[in-house]
Design a protein that fits this description.
Elements (H helix, E strand, L loop, with lengths): L1 E2 L30 H18 L24 E2 L8 E10 L2 E3 L13 E3 L2 E9 L5 E12 L16 E4 L2 E2 L4 E8 L8 E12 L1 H4 L6 E9 L7 E9 L5 E10 L5 E4 L6 E5 L2 E9 L13 E6 L2
Antiparallel strand pairs: 1-11, 2-11, 3-6, 4-5, 6-10, 7-8, 7-9, 7-11, 12-13, 13-17, 14-15, 14-16, 14-18
Protein name: DUF4352 domain-containing protein
Keywords: Membrane, Transmembrane, Transmembrane helix
Length: 303
Amino acid sequence: MESGPGTPNAKPAKVRVGSRHHVPGAPIGGMALVPVLAVLLLVVFVATWWGGDETPDPGTAPATPIMVPPATPPARKAQASDGGQLRIVEQGFIQLRESVAQTLTPGRGPGRPERYMPVRAAIIVENTSRDQVAIAPSFIARYLDPAGKGIVEYAAKSDENILSTDAIFPGARVGIAVFFNNSDTTVRTMTVRAVDAAWLPPADARRWVSPLTATNVRTIRSGSPKATIVAFTARSEYPGPVTAVADAIYRDSAGRIIGSSDAGERHRQHFPAGTADGSITVTDWLPANLDESRTQVFLSRAG
C-alpha cells in the first residue's frame, strides 16, 4: 500500500539548539538507530516471551493451571492458519520543513543552518484472522523521492524501515506511529507492506499478551505550544501492572492521517489492571490542520 504526503501546511517548527531531533550530517539525535533498535527489540520481545523462567515456587500450589510454553516459538508466517492476514488499512504522512544550526556538516552551523525535512507518519493495520492473535507483527515501510527512488535514512544501510507493535488480536485494528529521519530529500510516496507475525490462539497468546486499549482521547491546550497534553483512558486486561508505549495518531477534518506523536521519544507509561488515566505530553509539533476530535491513541506493551 502506498500514499502521498498529507497537506503540509503545518507551520514549520523552529528547531532549538540542543534539540532532540537528529542533525543532518551527524547522528546526534540517535534517530538513525531506530530501524536497528526496532529489529533488536522485536527479537528481544519474542525471545523474552518464550525464554522467561516461569517455574512456580514448588512450595506454592498455583491457583490456576500454568501453561508450559512450547519448546520453540511458533514459526513466523505471513498469515494465520485460518487464512487471516495483516492488512494495511490506512497510512499517511506529512513532511516537515525545518532547519537546524547544530550540525557537523562542513560549512553549516550557527548563522548557516542546514535544511531538515523529517517525516511524521502512521499506519493502521488490521488482523483479519477470526481466531489467531498476531504476536509481534512486522511491517516494512519505504519512502520514495519524486523519481521513485528509495530514500535511505541517515546512517542506515537500506531504504527498508522495519515497523512493529506488540500484538493484534483477531479482528482488531491498531495504529503504529512512525518517524523517518530525513535530511533534505523530498518524500513523494510512502509504501508499507506486511511481513509476518507469530500466530497463536487467544488462549495461548494470553500467556504473553493481553488486550490494551485507549479510549476517551482528548487534547488539552495549556496555552503554550510546547506543553500540549493528549489525555486518554487506558483499559488493560493484563492481570497486573504493565509498561506500555502510547502513540497518538493525528487526522485532519476529512479523517486523513496527517502525522503522529514523536515515535522517537516513545511515551512509556505504567498501567494497572483495569482502567486508568494516561497522557502524552507533546512538546515539539502538532499539525496546524489537526482535527482534535479525530485524534487516536494506541498502546503497545513495552518489554
